[in-house]
Amino acid sequence: VTGGQKGVQLVLDNLINPSASNIQGTVNVSEALQNKIPENGTLFIFARSEGVKRGPPLAVKRVTDIQFPYEFVLGPQNIMVPGTVFEGPMVLAARIDIDGDARAGPGDIEGFVGAAPGDKNVALLLNHLTGS
To answer: Which of 61, 103, 52 is nearest to 79 (CA)?
Structure first.
């Protein structure tokens, strides 16, 4: 198409599925840390763009009624900063937090895995006990 061209017909023939960019998977706790799961803990699942270490996460999900294994879906609906795009390789982190605060603290259980939008069957294993 060139500027000023008349009679151009635009055909919309591609349906974009917003859920296609979701990341789906399961969070589980390593056998060695099963006895460390707090009774009233909060599960946080975070996504950060690969290589980003500081600042707010790209997306986050907070779960208060946890049963493991926990099946999750994380996607554009969980974006922290409006206008941010949910794309590219990411690092997913999950943490069982004792005090309900999203920041890591002593006794929290966490794990990490690489993922990308559209990934299914992502296994996120919580296998690290945070120190003081």
So the answer is: 61
